Amino acid sequence: KNITAEPSLSNWTPGYVDYGENTEHNCLILVELKALAAVCMAISLCGLVGNGLVLWFLDFHGNRSLVSHYIANLAVVDFTLLLVFLLLMLAVLSFSTFCLSDLISSYLNFVFSSAIVCQFFDLNSLGFLAAMSVDQCLALF
């Protein structure tokens, strides 16, 4: 039995083959994503100011008890975490605005390393909150 097929299907290759003929790199990022990054930057800036005020009041105007020490450490950790978030959102906006597609590998390395740093500072802040809670509970006895 002869099986005849349409000639256009005879040289079909499975999968996606890109020969570089029609590669067009568009740096189009949705406006909603840019707006979300801008809102996250604004929230990060407000948090940085708030944590900076907490540190300034605790360092210069407050008494140094154990709870204020925990709160100061928590403010430092949160300040650093918000600074990393701010840098990450700034990188997103700069890559989308200036279309820096040739630096995408360094951007991905930055995102990976900032994710590790964010997890480290997030776990530290949770540890300080747990220590403050245990200290307050033990102070009741």
Automatic annotation (TrEMBL):
The G-protein coupled receptors family 1 profile domain, residue ranges: 50-141
Signal peptide: none
Protein's cellular compartments: Membrane
Alphabetized UniProt keyword annotations: G-protein coupled receptor, Membrane, Receptor, Transducer, Transmembrane, Transmembrane helix
Annotated coiled-coil segments of the chain: none
GO MF: G protein-coupled receptor activity
Topology of the protein relative to the lipid bilayer: Multi-pass membrane protein
A cellular component annotation (GO) from this entry: plasma membrane
Main location: membrane
Keyword Metal-binding set for record: no
Membrane-spanning intervals of the chain: 35-58, 70-95, 107-131
Protein name stated in the entry: MRGRD protein
Protein species of origin: Psilopogon haemacephalus
